[in-house]
Amino acid sequence: MSVPFLDLKAINDSQSAELDAAFRRVLASGWYILGKEVEAFEQQFAAYCGCAHAIGVANGLDAIMLVLRAWGIGPGDEVIVPSNTFIATWLAVSQCGATPIPVEPVEAHYNIDPARIEAAITPRTKAIVAVHLYGQPADMQAIMAIAARHGLKVLEDAAQAHGATCHGRRAGQLGHAAAFSFYPGKNLGALGDGGGITTDDAELAQLLRTYRNYGSQKKYHNLVQGFNSRLDELQAAFLAVKLGALDEGNARRRAIAARYSEQLAGIDGLTLPAVPSWAEPVWHLYVVRHARRDVLAERLAEHGIGTIVHYPIAPHQQQAYAELGHGAGAFPIAEAIHREVLSLPIGPHMSLDQADEVAAAVRAIVPTL
Ligand SMILES: *Cc1c(COP(=O)(O)O)cnc(C)c1O
Predict the structure, then answer these.
(1) What parts of the chain have a pLDDT lower than 50?
(2) Given 243, 265, 280, which residue is the final one in a domain?
């Protein structure tokens, strides 16, 4: 039995009748951009996250960038970001003309270390982007307390964390605003690109609706130099269907993660993800660490088991960020993580039997590495 890393076709096939109906409805409506479907999904997603407002946008990168713009962040400003994250978190800051200031993670949790944030704050610092990496919430209570002391905005990058909770509260309502991606492979994924922002701030929500649509509230009347970053009616209709299966999908992810954590415990040289007592992750990824992870990945592939490295190169070591001048060794925790992590298959497409099979293969292979 082979176990693919992810099987989007199987996931979407499980709701194919409802997705078909959504497509037919939008086709027949004759209205394809910013209409009833986007409005309905925004309301459903805001309610799911426990927020007053949700704003559909074109993708997760835009969701982050638009919030930072709406907060007036631009050239000369600094934004604190995790040293250990997907590149989009940094790109959103750069796209505003601001500088991403990396802060190292808590090694066991992979997320930004609140204890290291204050040392990175300068008079130019305007905001902190806290990423809930791999579906595990960042320590938002500590981060919000630091932000309050320094008058900073906090944006959650919740692109991997739809439904995750921190002290019982859902991602999306933990910062001043939150950015989500609905890229097909995310826990809540469209059948194409999509993104969303949640917030309780009515003024911010209104400004974001303006920014996403050329800077206009009334057609051909432009208040600000905006963007074209809209969620399609079609994707919104699909997302409303997929939102109905999110909790069930996350529950399956949790069951698989529990299986892995139970069956892979105590293997020499293999580090499993640690979960803080106040966090309930949604396991976008189940990430293990091993000094010889490339060999582990190859050997698992020989067993027909798909794995991926999230991510092989830390943002500060990407050629794209050579201009910032952070050399090798500048952020050693992130660098070590990027050298050693490996994501095992996880998702609503997988059975618990498949999880057992993956665990058995890992148990057999690791001692031989
Ligand atoms: C996927 C992702 C993004 C970007 O989302 P897109 O929809 O692909 O633009 C941003 N941050 C993180 C942590 C992500 O995983």
Answers:
(1) none
(2) 243
